[in-house]
Amino acid sequence: MNIQTKIKRLPRYTSYPTALEFKELSADKYISWLASLNSNEPVSLYIHIPHCSKLCWFCGCFMKVANKYDIVAKYVDALIQEIGLVAQHCSTQEVSHVHFGGGSPTILTPEDFEKIMNAIRANFAINDDAEIAVEIDPRTLSEEKVKAYARSGVNRVSIGIQDFDTKIQKAINRIQSEEIIRDSIDWLNNHGIKRINFDLIYGLPHQTLSSIKDTISQAARYKPDRISLFGYAHVPWVKKHMQMISTEDLPNAKSRLVMFKLASAILLSEGYKAIGLDHFALPNDELSNAKNKGTLKRNFQGYTTDNATSLIGLGISSIGSFIEGFAKNTSSFSNYYSKISAGELPIEHGLEVSATDLMRREIISDLMCFSKFNPRSVAMRYGLSENFSREQPALTKLIAEGILKKNKDTYSLTKKGSHYRRAVATIFDEYFPQDIDIVDRCILESAG
Ligand SMILES: C[S@@+](CC[C@H](N)C(=O)[O-])C[C@H]1O[C@@H](n2cnc3c(N)ncnc32)[C@H](O)[C@@H]1O
Ligand code: SF4
Q1: Ligand 1 pocket, Cβ-based, cut-off 6 angstroms
Q2: Which range of residues forms the domain containing residue 432?
Q3: Where a domain ends, among 262, 294, 314?
Q4: Domains: count for the chain
Q5: Residue nearest to atom 1 of ligand 1 (CA)
Q6: CB count in 10 Å sphere of residue 18
Q7: What are the pLDDT digits (tens) for 139-192?
Q8: 233 lines ligand 2 (CB under 6 A)
Q9: Exposed end of the chain (fewer CB within 10 Å): N or C?
């Protein structure tokens, strides 16, 4: 069997079931979920700002280039209306986390950013100790924008660095000097925003062991609290602009693995702790504490300390997560605007989850966050009599391959196994084609 023709990439399990399983979902169903939120429990808000000033050829995010600011201003107006509409149906007002993602939230003028934050504060009550985070494209940041973030209570940012090397930056159509990064960090520090994450990517065109070593060492010199080291996901059949990156310039699966191992070793020697699949955090960062305390979670943004049980998605293509299931806004700009102007919620897709889904989600989350899982004890907690006989042959094979080890009913990843976390997770994924051999799935994971 040629595995490449059947399935090209393994899921990253930022959710289970994954977004691939979403079907049509009615706005009425979504409204019933909002209405049944526990009024004593805080929720999290995710706000999607889809626009960017320029297209990066490696980009896998839902984004659209805005050639003029009018396009962004129109979106801000619709988003503010959506915030009001959602709040009308919501049975809780308390908010513990706000995350601005994109696209590039930094494309917003300071005035528009504050307008959105004011709309949130007018409709919800943000807890005093809430985390308010913004994803930053340093090329579109300014000191005025940082001041607006500080005034609005932003206390965490994630800066898109990707790679410091100019040759690699050219190959991905994202030129940004180190000076821009230095300025961004100075402004953030000067205005009291000290919790910083760097986004870096391995597996980009022209990257070599030597270039990765330089980029990681350069990043570590700034000592950000967190570093995300994503493996480049090259999916030109989904994102046509990735065709601008020549496959020949991409490091192969073996080189990617060696790059990740080298980058991890540098970060560990610099005092960072490894968190799950692709995150690193300083020992005193909340992510490291959450890992030690067993409260670490994984959501659509990656690893998080957010332990609210529900997440409300706002903006085009955003996804919310509730006890009952997932709700995704439309990804069509025209549908988004027409629904909002008609006073309707722009929900289009989603999934109601079953008890079995929730049980499987917990097993996968334990694996993704803590590198170990005990399927029997999770099933018992859910009152399910699942004996996991279907999963047994693949688990046994991975023990023989030195990827998993077993102690009583608990499985844990070995050092070798830490590079095959997503492949192991597929064993418990009821929607993943189980006829693909588990060793082939491990090979797929190395490729991206
Ligand atoms: C929404 S962007 C971050 C904010 C801002 N737009 C920027 O690029 O600086 C989210 C992050 O996803 C990562 N990313 C985007 N496309 C990716 C891909 N194809 N493979 C791996 N990581 C990717 C990048 O590290 C990027 O910083
Ligand atoms: S990586 Fe960030 S800045 Fe670049 S196109 Fe994607 S969302 Fe926009």
Answers
A1: 52, 58-61, 101-104, 135, 137, 160, 162, 199, 201, 230, 232-233
A2: 355-447
A3: 314
A4: 2
A5: 102
A6: 17
A7: 999 999 999 999 999 999 999 999 999 999 999 999 999 999 999 999 999 999
A8: no
A9: N
